[in-house]
Amino acid sequence: MAGAGQNGGLPAGRASDLIGSRIAGYQVEAEIGRGGMAVVYRARDLRLDRTVALKLLAPELARNDTFRKRFTHESRVAAAIDHPHIVPVFEAGETEGLLYIAMRYVAGQDLRALLNREGPLPVTTAGRIAAQVASALDAAHSHDLVHRDVKPGNILIAEGTDSDHPEHVYLTDFGLTKKSLSLTGFTTVGQFVGTLDYVAPEQISGRPVDARCDVYGFACVVYETLAGAPPFKRDDDMALLWAHQFDAPPPLTLLRPDLPGAVDTVVAKALAKRPDDRYGSCGEFVAALRSAVTARPREAAAHPATRVDVPVAAPDPGPPPELPGWARPAVGITPRAPGP
Ligand SMILES: Nc1ncnc2c1ncn2[C@@H]1O[C@H](COP(=O)(O)OP(=O)(O)OP(=O)(O)O)[C@@H](O)[C@H]1O
Ligand SMILES: [Mg+2]
């Protein structure tokens, strides 16, 4: 299905040609899936005789110095983190002009596929998934590693151990986002950039990012697991970027009236435009969400009016910034004089 442009230089023909071939000590067995900049295969690690997921990145990424340096650095950091909810990276390297990562093969599906199939999830399921992703992100942040591309496609869901833990969730793809490159002009016209549904305002405006950009992206994902759609949906990318920067997210309870109003306040804080106004960690956000959900009987039933009274908008980021000179209309538009 995916054409040559879809995965940035790994055309469908070539990708399937790789089945059965050997790449850096791995025997390629089957294609698992493909995203905007890579194809992921199930492969056999010939040295250790085990199944792995082998991710091959589009060749032009290897030619981009900024990307290659960050890829090498961040795959090393990610490989050093030993956490139950982070996909273990076994090896990352370069062979014949291709960057590759070998990691644990996670049998299951990603959260994107789950949401596409099931729509909004029950609160308990969404809560279990959120708690696991939050622990992975907070662990990465404690190693000074910012994910930058938290989204349902990077959250893998395997079968859990028992009925108390029906799913085991893994976060993957640290430092593999192409967004910062595309926003600084790396991509060429028509190249697939990836989703902008989860991108933080400071990533858009090119300010330095830290762990709090993951709090924002994670909050967009949590919102989607509960609402069935991310907080901002717009017909074109520019409008979507604008919404992340300046629009208040629609209250989650509009889409999930079964949830108490207190949830809206928690979500608004996690999605605050200014990083300083967000929760200090993903775990803090999940804990606040959990207590907002469990506060339900008292708040929602005894005081139904709180639903309306709770300030749901994100803290006001103030008016949009003044347009730079070059962006102002060439033909003067004079403000209308105040009416009589
Ligand atoms: N370790 C893994 N084990 C099993 N499946 C995996 C693994 N890593 C990735 N996948 C699957 O491979 C597919 C492609 O992943 P990939 O990361 O290339 O794309 P994506 O994250 O969906 O999109 P993008 O390229 O925008 O990041 C996804 O469906 C994902 O679920
Ligand atoms: Mg991915």
UniProtKB/TrEMBL annotation:
<dbReference type="Pfam" id="PF00069">
    <property type="entry name" value="Pkinase"/>
</dbReference>
<feature type="compositionally biased region" description="Low complexity">
    <location>
        <begin position="304"/>
        <end position="313"/>
    </location>
</feature>
<keyword id="KW-0067">ATP-binding</keyword>
<keyword id="KW-0547">Nucleotide-binding</keyword>
<feature type="region of interest" description="Disordered">
    <location>
        <begin position="299"/>
        <end position="340"/>
    </location>
</feature>
<keyword id="KW-0418">Kinase</keyword>
<feature type="binding site">
    <location>
        <position position="55"/>
    </location>
    <ligand>
        <name>ATP</name>
    </ligand>
</feature>
<dbReference type="InterPro" id="IPR011009">
    <property type="entry name" value="Kinase-like_dom_sf"/>
</dbReference>
<keyword id="KW-0808">Transferase</keyword>
<feature type="domain" description="Protein kinase">
    <location>
        <begin position="26"/>
        <end position="306"/>
    </location>
</feature>
<dbReference type="InterPro" id="IPR000719">
    <property type="entry name" value="Prot_kinase_dom"/>
</dbReference>
<dbReference type="GO" id="GO:0004674">
    <property type="term" value="F:protein serine/threonine kinase activity"/>
</dbReference>
<dbReference type="InterPro" id="IPR008271">
    <property type="entry name" value="Ser/Thr_kinase_AS"/>
</dbReference>
<dbReference type="GO" id="GO:0005524">
    <property type="term" value="F:ATP binding"/>
</dbReference>
<dbReference type="InterPro" id="IPR017441">
    <property type="entry name" value="Protein_kinase_ATP_BS"/>
</dbReference>
<feature type="compositionally biased region" description="Pro residues">
    <location>
        <begin position="314"/>
        <end position="323"/>
    </location>
</feature>
<protein>
    <recommendedName>
        <fullName>non-specific serine/threonine protein kinase</fullName>
        <ecNumber>2.7.11.1</ecNumber>
    </recommendedName>
</protein>
<keyword id="KW-0723">Serine/threonine-protein kinase</keyword>
